[in-house]
Amino acid sequence: MDIFCEHIVQKRKGIKEILMILGIFLATVVLVAVCGLFLFTPFGSVAFLLTVGIVVGSYYLVMSFNIEYEYILTNGELDIDCIRNRSKRKRLITVSVKTFDVLAPVGKPEHSAEESASFTRVIDASSYCNSGYAYFAVFSKDGQKIKLIFEPDEQMLEKIKLYIPNNVK
Asked: Is the distance from CB of 167 to CB of 139 less than 8 angstroms?
């Protein structure tokens, strides 16, 4: 019997992302105003093209802050993709859940030793840092000790438990 489950979470914008978007907007306004000064000079066509390029570039830059994470569990293989602006998909990691040393909720005191250990790589594929639904998984892949932070739904957790019943806390 094949096991398949998928779940998508939208990454929420934190204060850092909001300030970056605000900075992009302000820089766009300033650069467009400077280009506007040159519109009625001999360099008007160049200034117009620069203005259009700045506005379009800023739009795509701001839209790249719209991030979703998709978790796909297929027969014990967990694929995590990062989707930007609902159009550009990048595979973050593919891992067998059987390699998980531990899978536990983030922030629980009884798992603080595993959660705060040193890792070669940390992959945060959760909606935001202090999400109450986030879990962390610790595993080794290609000689690296990796910590994965993600937000599986109840259905996905139940299916992961089929593969590693003793490692899910």
From this structure: no
